[in-house]
Amino acid sequence: EEMSLLENPVRMRTMQLLQQILGFHLLEWKFEQSNRKLFIWHCGMDYRLEYRRFNQINPQYFDKVFLGADLFRFSPGDEFYSVPFVTYSSNWSIEQSRQKILDKFAGKSLQIFHAPSNHSTKGTQQIRVAIRELYERLQGQLNVDLVYKEIDPPVSNSEVIKMKEESHIYIDQFHLDIGGYGISSTEALAYGNIVLASIQN
């Protein structure tokens, strides 16, 4: 629980609750026997806002740091920091993948897809407004049907992947305090999407 390392009584309560559930404190457990390994996974706002402090704290307590893809730019970038990626195996050749993308863009519709994990943090409402304005502005000017699709989480990842395979433009998020791109964007890029994602500041 990365948040427990900052001076915030509410967040410290999370670590205390975890200690009650486990029956021991993770840091005490590690230091009882030095051969035990302890890793930390940073995935969000806390690391983004306080990365300098975390970069000082992490080597004191942890054996390895894992980061979301969009957070690695805040790390020192050495071997102590890693970015795990979920990968999907496919029997498609590079040429088959290329042809599937070309065939997709040769169709009669242009599909815009948005798969928010959370509507407010991904800026879904602003995205809907922008799509509506775009549709009104381009009405009658396009040779293709403009189709906007979004999910209402939770939705299985296999379903999201299938929609990314079919879509042409993927909108990851629009939020000035959250960014930039992460796993969701890279998945969409792999399926030939034009990807839009805001980047913090």
Judged by helices, strands and strand pairing, the structural class is alpha/beta
- The count of strands amounts to 7
Distance between the termini: 26 Å
Q: Output the number of helix runs.
A: 7
Extract low-pLDDT stretches. Answer: none
- Please provide the ordered H/E string of secondary-structure elements: HHEHEEHEHEHEHE
Physical arrangement of strands within the biggest beta sheet: 5-4-6-7
The biggest beta sheet reads: 4 strands, parallel
Using only CA atoms, what is the Rg? Answer: 21 Å
- Fraction of residues in helix: 40-55%
Whole-number mean pLDDT: 85
- Give the overall silhouette: elongated
Describe the structure in your own words.
The chain is built from 7 helices and 7 strands, in the order ααβαββαβαβαβαβ. The chain has helices spanning 9-22, 26-32, 45-61, 94-105, 124-138, 157-166, 183-190; strands at 39-42, 64-67, 81-82, 109-114, 145-150, 169-173, 194-197. The protein is elongated and about 70 Å long.
Give the helix/strand layout.
Blueprint: H1 9-22, H2 26-32, E1 39-42, H3 45-61, E2 64-67, E3 81-82, H4 94-105, E4 109-114, H5 124-138, E5 145-150, H6 157-166, E6 169-173, H7 183-190, E7 194-197
Short description:
This protein has 201 residues and is α/β, with parallel strands linked by helices.
Identify the notable features of this structure and list them briefly:
single chain; 201 residues; alpha/beta; four-stranded parallel sheet; three-stranded parallel sheet; 7 helices; 7 strands
